[in-house]
């Protein structure tokens, strides 16, 4: 199949593009390299350095005969979305609508959308959250993901577009940007390997549901094949504190470095964890990489990609 992966130069999108190529598909990557990196682009894919909002997207849909869209491109910095909601809306909502319009005109088979579990549920009423949990996003980023889920429903209802929205938990693994705002595993790994002291916001007892990127890739691959429309959480059901993440990474890194405890981030959720019952029953997905192994693999990647280290794709 001809699969368009938007955001295919980014962390998650580049792994999905690799998996699609390995499965024998033709992969077309669209990415404007705003946070993505050209080194992440698989040389076996067709690459277009284009903004998902651009007029040129029309030519790409027809010229490349797109059959499936895996939409990962996004403005994904929650703080930036608070500072500049218009920009967030432009990329995340208008960019997605542009793709949806082109998708329905092209009569594509499936639209897979990277939604979010943490930001869409807000502070949880119960743990773990299933897909029926109330949706109370408290950031423009979470609102934009929810809006796109609603547009997906509209395109399905109006035009019969088949879609899957995947509400990711906290994704971690190789290629995550260690200099970004989010991604505590990548940030801590880089700091620890450089012998620097990572900052833990608050007391470090806040919990998240950490899912390894290869498990997220597998969910996307199953979603492409799934012959129906639905919304699935992609999480492990396990809560891990920031302190526990720090301890595991410190053990893997070697030298003993103490964290710096900084002030708690304002408005930060205290607990976040997702149920995967629904996706397990529907498409037989379950997380396969335990957190200890995932952290080791991530640390190993950053060790090899330190300045002066050995580099491999
Ligand atoms: P990322 O920043 O590494 O990837 C996003 C990619 O989209 C980048 O390569 C960037 O250059 C590209 N992009 C941004 N704006 C674009 C535009 N206007 N046109 C074309 N390309 C554009 O982030 P990621 O962690 O790989 O996230 C992928 C998706 O998963 C996003 O939609 C994000 O919201 C979602 N998500 C991620 C997590 C997580 O923990 N990483 C959690 C929930 C949801």
Describe the structure.
There is one protein chain. The protein is of the alpha/beta class. It is built from eleven helices and 13 strands. Helix 1 (11-22) links the parallel strand 1 and strand 2 (26-30). Helix 1 (11-22) packs across helix 8 (213-225), helix 4 (85-106) packs parallel to helix 6 (140-159) and helix 7 (184-193) runs parallel beside helix 9 (242-253). The structure holds nicotinamide-adenine-dinucleotide. The site of nicotinamide-adenine-dinucleotide has 29 residues, from helix 1, helix 4, strand 5 and strand 7.
Topology:
Layout: E1 2-6, H1 11-22, E2 26-30, E3 46-48, H2 57-63, E4 68-71, H3 78-83, H4 85-106, E5 110-116, H5 118-121, H6 140-159, E6 163-168, E7 170-172, H7 184-193, E8 199-201, E9 207-208, E10 210-212, H8 213-225, E11 230-234, E12 240-241, H9 242-253, E13 260-262, H10 277-283, H11 291-304
Parallel strand pairs: 1-2, 1-4, 2-3, 4-5, 5-6, 6-11, 7-10, 8-13
Antiparallel strand pairs: 9-12
Helix pairs in contact: 1-8, 2-4, 4-6, 7-9, 7-11, 9-11
Nicotinamide-adenine-dinucleotide (NAD) binds at residues 7, 9-13, 30-36, 51-53, 72-76, 91, 95, 114, 116, 168, 170-171, 177.
């Amino acid at each position: 199949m001809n699969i368009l992966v938007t955001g295919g130069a980014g962390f998650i999108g580049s792994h999905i593009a690799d998996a699609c190529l390995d499965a024998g598909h033709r992969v077309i990557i669209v990415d404007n390299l705003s946070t993505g990196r050209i080194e992440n682009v698989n040389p076996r894919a067709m690459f277009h350095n284009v903004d998902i909002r651009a007029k040129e997207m029309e030519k790409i849909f027809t010229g490349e005969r797109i059959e499936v869209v895996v939409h990962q491109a996004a403005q994904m910095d929650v703080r930036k979305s608070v500072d500049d909601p218009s920009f967030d809306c432009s990329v995340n909502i208008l960019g997605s609508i542009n793709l949806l319009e082109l998708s329905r005109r092209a009569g594509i088979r499936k639209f897979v959308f990277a939604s979010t579990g943490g930001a869409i549920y807000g502070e949880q009423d119960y743990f773990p959250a299933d897909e029926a949990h109330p949706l109370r996003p408290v950031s423009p980023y979470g609102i934009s993901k929810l809006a796109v889920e609603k547009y997906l429903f509209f395109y399905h209802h109006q035009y019969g577009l088949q879609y899957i929205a995947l509400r990711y938990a906290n994704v971690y693994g190789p290629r995550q940007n260690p200099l970004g705002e989010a991604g505590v595993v990548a940030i801590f790994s880089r700091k620890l390997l450089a012998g620097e002291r990572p900052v833990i916001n608050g007391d470090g007892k806040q919990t998240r549901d950490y899912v390894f990127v290869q498990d997220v890739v597998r969910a996307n691959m199953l979603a492409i094949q799934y012959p129906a429309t639905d919304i699935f959480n992609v999480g492990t059901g396990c809560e891990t504190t920031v302190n526990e993440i720090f301890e595991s990474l410190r053990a893997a890194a070697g030298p003993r470095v103490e964290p710096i405890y900084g002030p708690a981030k304002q408005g930060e959720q205290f607990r976040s964890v997702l149920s995967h019952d629904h996706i397990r029953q529907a498409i037989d997905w379950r997380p396969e990489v335990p957190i200890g192994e995932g952290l080791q693999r991530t640390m190993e990647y950053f060790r090899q990609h330190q300045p002066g280290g050995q580099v491999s794709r």
